[in-house]
Amino acid sequence: MEDDRRQEEPNERYRCGWEGCQQQLASQQQLVVHVTSQHVQLASSTYRCLWRGCSRRRQGFNARYKMFVHIRTHTKERPHVCPDCGKGFSRQENLKIHKRSHTGEKPYACTFEGCDRAYSNSSDRFKHTRTHYVDRPYSCRHPGCSKSYTDPSSLRKHMKANGHGRPSSPAATPPPGGRPEKLSRGSTKLSEGQWGD
């Protein structure tokens, strides 16, 4: 068959996106090896990502391993794979947290007296703990909904799950005076005219 004899072009998704480099590689693994060996310099005091369109905008890393982990956002490498479901992660710590979804383990208990909530990761516990100490300035403005949250990401998740529009729409507005500004773990103050993350 003609299709069998045709030489396959390297996949476009394995094109190096580093500034000044247009090399196409045949596989994800070859792309990872290329970027880490050709573009991430050894013995540098600061490692900068020069991937075209990178959101870090050349902000440096102080360690080479941090740069390697970041590069995975561009190469889509997920070397840490869950043995239960096959889902891949760029960081070992994220796999460790994910495994708790299979075991049900929740080692991060709320420390507020009388609260028995527990979480599989410290970030979720921190968000929850704030509900005991902080006002909930992010309110859903959808007609008939009275839900409010301590952080904008929780409001966005609620609005998406319930079809209440986007936070930038009139259905949700920032609290009077702006968004909460983090002072320290568990306390906030309002800052002028800002909304979002």
TrEMBL record:
<dbReference type="InterPro" id="IPR056436">
    <property type="entry name" value="Znf-C2H2_ZIC1-5/GLI1-3-like"/>
</dbReference>
<feature type="region of interest" description="Disordered">
    <location>
        <begin position="149"/>
        <end position="197"/>
    </location>
</feature>
<feature type="domain" description="C2H2-type">
    <location>
        <begin position="52"/>
        <end position="79"/>
    </location>
</feature>
<keyword id="KW-0238">DNA-binding</keyword>
<dbReference type="InterPro" id="IPR036236">
    <property type="entry name" value="Znf_C2H2_sf"/>
</dbReference>
<dbReference type="Pfam" id="PF00096">
    <property type="entry name" value="zf-C2H2"/>
</dbReference>
<dbReference type="GO" id="GO:0008270">
    <property type="term" value="F:zinc ion binding"/>
</dbReference>
<keyword id="KW-0862">Zinc</keyword>
<feature type="domain" description="C2H2-type">
    <location>
        <begin position="108"/>
        <end position="137"/>
    </location>
</feature>
<keyword id="KW-0863">Zinc-finger</keyword>
<comment type="similarity">
    <text>Belongs to the GLI C2H2-type zinc-finger protein family.</text>
</comment>
<dbReference type="InterPro" id="IPR013087">
    <property type="entry name" value="Znf_C2H2_type"/>
</dbReference>
<keyword id="KW-0804">Transcription</keyword>
<dbReference type="InterPro" id="IPR043359">
    <property type="entry name" value="GLI-like"/>
</dbReference>
<keyword id="KW-0539">Nucleus</keyword>
<dbReference type="Pfam" id="PF23561">
    <property type="entry name" value="zf-C2H2_15"/>
</dbReference>
<dbReference type="GO" id="GO:0000978">
    <property type="term" value="F:RNA polymerase II cis-regulatory region sequence-specific DNA binding"/>
</dbReference>
<protein>
    <submittedName>
        <fullName>Zinc finger protein GLIS2</fullName>
    </submittedName>
</protein>
<keyword id="KW-0805">Transcription regulation</keyword>
<dbReference type="GO" id="GO:0005634">
    <property type="term" value="C:nucleus"/>
</dbReference>
<feature type="domain" description="C2H2-type">
    <location>
        <begin position="80"/>
        <end position="107"/>
    </location>
</feature>
<feature type="domain" description="C2H2-type">
    <location>
        <begin position="138"/>
        <end position="167"/>
    </location>
</feature>
<keyword id="KW-0479">Metal-binding</keyword>
<dbReference type="GO" id="GO:0000981">
    <property type="term" value="F:DNA-binding transcription factor activity, RNA polymerase II-specific"/>
</dbReference>
<keyword id="KW-0677">Repeat</keyword>
